[in-house]
Amino acid sequence: MRLILVRHPQPLVATGVCYGRSDLAVSEDQLARTLTALSAALPHGLPVYSSPLQRCTRLAAELAPLLQSPAPLLDARIAEIDFGDWEMRAWDDIPRADIDAWAADLVNYHPGGGESVLQMAGRIAAFYADLQRQQRDAIIICHAGAMRLLSACHTGLAPAGMALQAARHPHQIGYGATLILQSQTAGQ
């Protein structure tokens, strides 16, 4: 099974703003550039899964026909983390004590009263398990957080280990970037 993870294009949001589950648009230029790069690089005919947030669904809806793939399948389990009342606030405006509390418990803390990384890891693990049962290649359009957790899940970690690994390592995943997860099949 080969999973091709794709990060959405850059959303329309100011630098330094906390956003996770916020449903942000992307510019037409960013979308066009990302579509051009991906349509030339990705295999055709694979199922396309997408986070239901518009920065992903716009890309998925326009990419699937270019790849001669079926209509995208939206799955809320691969949406980005919910930062609660931190959403759409400048990181600099979030009280330092709250940031420190999150840093002290990266796995279980609920930033802004929203979702913990462990909760997100649980839904990502359930999505991954469903894909494994299907045993077919797929393209997954999602978010940097989901990509990091899917990658950790692919190594065999349980949700707590996934959350810890993803939370401890800052991501270097660019907008529109891909990450390929390849599973060994029997006999290889």
UniProtKB/TrEMBL annotation:
Gene3D superfamilies: Phosphoglycerate mutase-like. Coiled coil: none annotated. InterPro entries: His_Pase_superF_clade-1, His_PPase_superfam. This is Phosphoglycerate mutase. The lineage of its organism: Bacteria, Pseudomonadati, Pseudomonadota, Betaproteobacteria, Burkholderiales.
